[in-house]
């Protein structure tokens, strides 16, 4: 009896018990929903809720608190949706779950993840009983062979006699039902001899019995078919399984009814397509893909109902799909020594058919893909019924081709293609050059954004392999697919949100204009829509910037390259493209951080990991490795206790990434020393994990997790540590990875000068990153020698914090990526040399601290000193067409800090950090006029009558008068009218001057600081002070001083927060470098005093210190004020900017009245404005309609008041990575009608 039959029987028996709550899920590889592991636990929870109202109420509360749980990992779904609601039921209720055919779930290790999630919780939930069936697998044996509350029953261990009795019973009942249905006589229908013959032929395979009965029940003479099956002898199929005998007879009989050779060929094609299809297809979809009439497909399959599910004539017209009954049939069809010998006319070489399926998919795409949404200047979200669009414009065949063309293409081998005029490459060229944009639109409509990157990576990599086999490395089709890949990374939020209309708006609008994709598809933009200014010419290598925990010194990719590991006070995975975070480990309740750490506590198990928190006085650092097996290794180092002497704790743990379970503690130590930062690395093949601290070097075998090396450290420079598949470096010693760990050679280096080191992927060389800015390449041999070096930049170039280089090796080639200071370098290690193959800069000019390659080499990621993790496309860094050097033309102004539109909206005024003011012609992006205004410009404003402009620097504001313009490109000669010094009490405030703005009638000017608004009025052609509004606040400097030991005593009047690890401490304490204080301390502390403070254990971190009495000051400053139509309007902050009653009365008198004033043309929210909070980077009009989305390559982070400006259908912004000006013109939007 089969496992599904048993599961059904168990479910029926449990259902009859009124004291049980029953829920079931029957997996099936033939159903898109039933093979989706992410639907198992939500479906079960829904069933339980339908049976029990109390469970339903609890589940509703869970969904309200955890709306993301539908897309969470299996173990979190099971815990939140099932276990926790069950624990709250009163009285407790016994629940039985039946999950069948778990092995038919789709996805890597999917069934194992489900089983792990069940085992993790079932022992602690006595009221929960679970029945699971699946095919035999090694992981099933491992998980169920030991442990409490689990029992395994193997069907193939059932005695033969019992199996044969079940087969006899099945044959009698099923064949008798066929006889009655076909109205046959009972004479000689089913004798005992026939039954025994059938049982013998089945050889214990229940699927054989099922297929026999289906064959006998098919059209034709049932009695003759029964006799034919029982007359077959085993000798005819000596070298075949019993099921092969049956498949051969069914296919041979079907062929006899298809006399036409062309129909026979189509029959073989249809069968091969059913076997090789990525998901089951309908009769119509099969016909459309293969170019065969659906009616013919139906006729060809009429005689194979016993081995395939074929819809009847009514079902063939609906959405019922053709699918196999058993996994043995594809094995039979794809084996040359089985079907190829028995029914050779049916056999098609799998690779040849993959080529045909690929060609069929591309022909379908080129034939059916077209623009679905009409040309419209209305950029609002799609209001048409999406289901209607799918039914009308996207057939089942087209939907299949859209999703799976690359899967079939990637299975094509170069030998199957012709050198010239190959139809597959011609179809691919036609698709890439004419249909890609429509394909992206359909991806949106199908909500398939989650797989778009996978499709394009498969497509372009497969084409690259095919071309390289012919000696070609550049091709127009390949360039288009690479552009499509970069575009999918860049515009993923558009695809994810399914804004199909914006494929023709935002997507095209912000495509780099020198890319092949833009040249082929820009004509689909609405008329006159364009982007000008200092726009990127080609793709930005930067894919995303993620705000993750600052308490880590590594960047760790998931094995599938989709996520980055984040460890705050629990483990989570952050999706690279969507930025969505999902919990991996459990979230532990918060505990007091003032108490000394208990050495027996394990971080993440008995207490939370170190976290970013205002009460956290015991921070730490966590390093991680995510192995291809799904295991995670964490190394958590906690800062020493507050009391003397200093102590530091380190824990190395092993976790399961699928369930979040803590598997084991690999190592723990306590050092009677200051904070230290151990190093944990894996070998390139992930066979070994190595760990180095000041006292010891340890290695584990990742197959058994046995400790294979425990070596007392021979050097205090433990951070000079790298691991290859056979060797490791510690200090200047190269040793063998073995239990004896013999010394192989010594490098002639000073380990204290090495900030980072890594072996090449093949282990032949080791690359060192020195604190001096040099990269050295050493050959690994018995007599190690340096073969090349390269100077990146000098530490003398850095006047602030000293940079420390970090290195990572490509997993598949001799590329090394290095971050040093604000630069990221891609280096190629040649035979005896080293060369720079790519280069880019850090966003925001932040120092890069740690670098990593993803497992497949698709991404490179770095942490910076602001706590962000930046992810670059490795391909884009190397691609010579990518704009790596973002330096500007010397004739253009410096880094832009602020901008505003002028009275003539074709002109824009900008200010720069170098003190220049510039006027730009927006339609062309050309510079009209630039002049030196003051030392620094951080805010500008232009009067509505075109007469004045105002600029604010650090300590003063200047008003300039402008002559009248006869034409937009006339040379303007601004005249300085007035210099207004900032009030003395605001000097030293951060920042000294926030903003300036003119009133709508151009007669008043407001100059805003954090706590003073200085208002000036124009009277008789002269500017005079009108009023000065003040709050009770007089000063706010967040980092007032370096924390000292007394600050950490409980009850101190200071509030402290550990911001991040202090790499200056590492540079001074470990590398013995002289370091400078951070900028906010340079006026208050000398270099000697700062270096002395770094000797304190607490100075391994950067701290935020603030008097408790002033803890709310940060929320009391204005960012900008705007004149209303009458007087002034305030840009609302989260809290009221001014707290005392008198100031509040003044604000109501002079400033904002209602929120509607946000949308007035003279405020920050002009006609086109950013949408704050819930839809980042979207620009909307006054009605709230989404006009376009600004890619993260142009703007990242929170919109600031000075970063954008708007007038009518024009919008300007500052690109925050390089401070370039971008002008957007979108005619037809931004109107108030």
Fold topology:
Elements: H1 3-15, E1 21-26, H2 40-51, H3 53-65, H4 74-88, E2 95-100, H5 110-122, E3 128-132, H6 138-144, H7 160-181, H8 192-202, H9 206-217, H10 222-231, H11 242-256, H12 261-276, E4 281-282, H13 283-290, H14 294-300, E5 308-309, H15 313-316, E6 321-324, H16 328-333, H17 339-342, H18 350-368, H19 386-393, H20 396-410, H21 423-434, H22 436-445, H23 452-469, H24 476-490, H25 492-496, H26 506-509, H27 516-521, E7 530-533, E8 542-547, E9 563-567, E10 571-575, E11 581-583, E12 620-626, E13 631-638, E14 648-656, E15 662-671, E16 679-682, E17 688-692, E18 696-701, E19 707-712, E20 721-723, E21 727-730, E22 733-736, E23 743-746, E24 754-759, E25 765-770, E26 774-779, E27 785-791, E28 806-809, E29 815-820, E30 823-829, E31 834-841, E32 848-853, E33 859-864, E34 868-873, H28 874-878, E35 896-901, E36 907-912, E37 916-921, E38 926-932, E39 939-942, E40 948-952, E41 956-961, E42 975-981, E43 995-998, E44 1004-1008, E45 1012-1019, E46 1022-1030, E47 1054-1061, H29 1063-1069, H30 1087-1093, E48 1101-1107, E49 1121-1122, E50 1129-1130, ...
Parallel strand pairs: 1-2, 2-3
Antiparallel strand pairs: 4-6, 5-6, 7-56, 8-34, 9-10, 10-11, 12-13, 13-14, 14-15, 16-17, 17-18, 18-19, 20-21, 21-22, 22-23, 24-25, 25-26, 26-27, 28-29, 29-30, 30-31, 32-33, 33-34, 35-36, 36-37, 37-38, 39-40, 40-41, 41-42, 43-44, 44-45, 45-46, 47-48, 49-50, 51-52, 52-53, 54-55, 55-56
Helix pairs in contact: 2-3, 2-4, 3-4, 4-5, 7-8, 7-9, 8-9, 9-10, 9-11, 12-18, 13-14, 13-20, 18-20, 18-21, 20-23, 21-24, 23-24
WD repeats: 889-930
Protein name: Nephrocystin 3-like N-terminal domain-containing protein
Keywords: Repeat, WD repeat
């Amino acid at each position: 009896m089969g496992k599904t039959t048993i599961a059904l029987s168990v479910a029926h028996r449990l259902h009859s018990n009124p004291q049980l709550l029953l829920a079931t899920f029957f997996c099936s590889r033939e159903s898109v929903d039933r093979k989706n592991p992410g639907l198992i636990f939500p479906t079960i929870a829904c069933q339980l809720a339908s049976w029990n109202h109390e469970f339903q109420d609890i589940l509703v509360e869970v969904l309200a608190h955890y709306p993301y749980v539908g897309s969470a990992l299996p173990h979190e779904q099971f815990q939140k949706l099932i276990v926790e609601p069950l624990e709250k039921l009163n009285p407790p209720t016994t629940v039985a779950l039946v999950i069948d055919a778990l092995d038919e779930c789709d996805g890597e290790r999917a069934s194992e993840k489900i089983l792990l999630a069940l085992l993790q919780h079932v022992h602690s939930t006595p009221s929960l009983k679970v029945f699971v069936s699946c095919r035999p697998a090694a992981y099933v044996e491992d998980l169920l062979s030991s442990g409490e509350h689990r029992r395994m029953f193997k069907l193939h261990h059932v005695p033969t006699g019992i199996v044969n009795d079940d087969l006899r019973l099945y044959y009698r009942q099923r064949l008798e039902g066929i006889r009655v249905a076909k109205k046959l006589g009972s004479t000689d229908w089913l004798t005992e001899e026939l039954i025994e013959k059938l049982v013998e032929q089945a050889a214990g395979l229940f699927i054989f019995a099922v297929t026999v009965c289906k064959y006998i029940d098919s059209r034709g003479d049932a009695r003759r078919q029964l006799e034919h099956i029982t007359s077959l002898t085993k000798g005819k199929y000596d070298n075949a399984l019993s099921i092969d005998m049956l498949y051969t007879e069914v296919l041979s009989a079907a062929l006899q009814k298809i006399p036409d050779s062309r129909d026979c060929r189509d029959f073989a094609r249809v069968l091969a397509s059913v076997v090789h299809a990525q998901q089951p297809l309908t009769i119509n979809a099969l016909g459309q893909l293969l170019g065969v009439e659906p009616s013919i497909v139906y006729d060809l399959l009429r005689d194979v109902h016993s081995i395939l599910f074929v819809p009847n004539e009514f079902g063939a017209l609906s959405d019922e799909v053709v699918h196999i009954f058993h996994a043995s049939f594809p094995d039979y069809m794809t084996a040359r020594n089985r079907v190829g010998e028995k029914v050779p006319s049916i056999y098609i070489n799998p690779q040849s058919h993959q080529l045909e399926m690929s060609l069929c998919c591309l022909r379908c795409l080129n034939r059916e893909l077209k623009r679905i949404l009409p040309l419209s200047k209305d950029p609002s979200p799609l209001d048409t019924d999406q289901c209607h669009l799918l039914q009308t414009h996207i057939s089942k065949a087209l939907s299949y081709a859209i999703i799976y063309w690359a899967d079939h293409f990637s299975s094509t081998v170069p030998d199957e293609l012709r050198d010239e005029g190959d139809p597959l490459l011609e179809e691919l060229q036609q698709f890439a050059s004419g249909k890609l944009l429509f394909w992206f639109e359909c991806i949106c409509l199908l909500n398939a954004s989650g797989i778009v990157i996978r499709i394009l990576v498969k497509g372009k990599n497969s084409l690259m392999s095919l071309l390289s086999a012919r000696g070609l490395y550049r091709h127009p089709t390949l360039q288009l697919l690479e552009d499509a890949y970069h575009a999918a990374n860049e515009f993923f939020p558009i695809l994810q949100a399914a804004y199909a209309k914006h494929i023709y708006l935002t997507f095209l609008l912000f495509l780099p204009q020198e890319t092949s994709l833009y040249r082929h598809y820009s004509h689909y933009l609405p008329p006159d829509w364009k982007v000008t200014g200092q726009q990127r010419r080609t793709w930005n290598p930067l894919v995303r910037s993620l705000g993750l925990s600052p308490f880590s010194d590594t960047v760790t990719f998931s094995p599938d390259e989709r996520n980055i590991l984040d460890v705050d006070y629990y483990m989570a995975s952050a999706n690279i493209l969507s930025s969505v975070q999902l919990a991996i480990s459990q979230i532990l309740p918060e505990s007091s951080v003032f108490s000394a750490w208990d050495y027996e506590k394990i971080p993440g198990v008995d207490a939370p990991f170190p976290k970013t928190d205002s009460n956290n006085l015991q921070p730490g650092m966590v390093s991680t490795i995510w192995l291809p097996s799904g295991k995670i290794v964490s190394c958590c180092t906690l800062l020493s206790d507050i009391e003397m002497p200093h102590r530091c704790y380190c824990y190395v743990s092993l976790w399961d990434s699928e369930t979040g379970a803590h598997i084991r503690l690999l190592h723990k130590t306590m050092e009677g020393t200051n904070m230290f930062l151990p190093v944990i690395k894996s070998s390139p093949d992930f066979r070994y994990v190595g760990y180095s601290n000041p006292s010891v070097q340890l290695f584990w075998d990742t197959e058994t997790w046995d400790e294979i090396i425990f070596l007392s450290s021979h050097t205090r420079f433990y951070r000079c540590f790298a691991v290859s598949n056979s060797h490791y470096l510690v200090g200047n010693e190269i040793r063998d990875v073995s239990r004896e760990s013999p010394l192989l050679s010594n490098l002639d280096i000073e380990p204290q000068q090495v900030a980072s080191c890594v072996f090449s992927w093949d282990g032949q060389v080791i690359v060192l990153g020195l604190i001096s800015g040099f990269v050295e390449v050493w050959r690994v041999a018995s007599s190690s020698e340096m073969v090349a070096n390269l100077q990146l930049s000098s530490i003398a170039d850095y006047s602030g914090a000293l940079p420390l280089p970090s290195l990572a090796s490509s997993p598949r080639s001799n590329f090394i990526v290095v971050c040093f200071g604000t630069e990221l370098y891609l280096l190629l290690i040649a035979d005896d040399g080293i060369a720079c193959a790519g280069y880019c800069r850090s966003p925001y000019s932040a120092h890069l601290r740690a670098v990593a390659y993803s497992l497949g080499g698709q991404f490179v990621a770095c942490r910076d000193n602001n706590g962000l993790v930046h992810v670059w496309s490795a391909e884009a860094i190397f691609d010579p067409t990518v704009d790596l050097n973002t330096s500007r033309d010397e004739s253009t102004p410096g880094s832009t800090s602020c901008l505003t539109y002028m009275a003539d909206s074709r002109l824009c005024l900008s200010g720069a950090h170098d003190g220049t003011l510039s006027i730009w012609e927006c339609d062309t992006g050309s510079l009209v006029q630039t002049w030196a205004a003051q030392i620094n410009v951080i805010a500008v404003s232009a009067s509505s009558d075109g007469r004045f402009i105002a600029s604010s620097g650090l300590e003063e504001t200047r008003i300039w008068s402008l002559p009248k313009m006869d034409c937009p490109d006339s040379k303007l000669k601004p005249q300085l009218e007035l210099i207004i010094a900032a009030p003395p009490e605001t000097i030293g405030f951060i920042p000294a001057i926030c903003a300036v703005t003119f009133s709508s009638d151009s007669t008043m000017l407001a100059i805003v600081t954090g706590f003073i608004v200085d208002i000036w009025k124009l009277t008789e052609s002269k500017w005079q002070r009108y009023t000065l509004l003040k709050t009770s606040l007089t000063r706010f400097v967040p980092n007032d001083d370096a924390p000292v030991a007394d600050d950490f005593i409980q009850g101190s009047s200071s509030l402290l927060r550990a911001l991040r690890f202090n790499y200056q401490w590492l540079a001074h304490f470990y590398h013995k470098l002289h370091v400078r204080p951070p900028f906010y301390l340079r006026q208050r502390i000398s270099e000697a005093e700062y270096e002395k403070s770094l000797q304190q254990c607490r100075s391994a971190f950067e701290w935020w210190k603030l008097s408790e009495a002033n803890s709310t000051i940060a929320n009391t400053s204005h960012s900008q004020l705007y004149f209303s139509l009458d007087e002034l309007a305030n840009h609302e902050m989260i809290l009221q900017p001014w707290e005392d009653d008198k100031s509040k009365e003044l604000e109501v008198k002079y400033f904002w009245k209602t929120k509607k004033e946000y949308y007035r043309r003279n405020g920050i929210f002009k006609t086109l404005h950013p949408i704050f909070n819930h839809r980042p980077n979207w620009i909307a009009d006054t009605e709230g309609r989404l006009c376009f989305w600004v890619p993260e390559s142009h703007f990242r982070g929170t919109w600031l008041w000075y970063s954008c400006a708007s007038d009518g259908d024009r919008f300007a912004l500052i690109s925050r990575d390089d401070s370039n000006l971008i002008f957007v013109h979108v005619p037809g939007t931004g109107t108030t009608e």
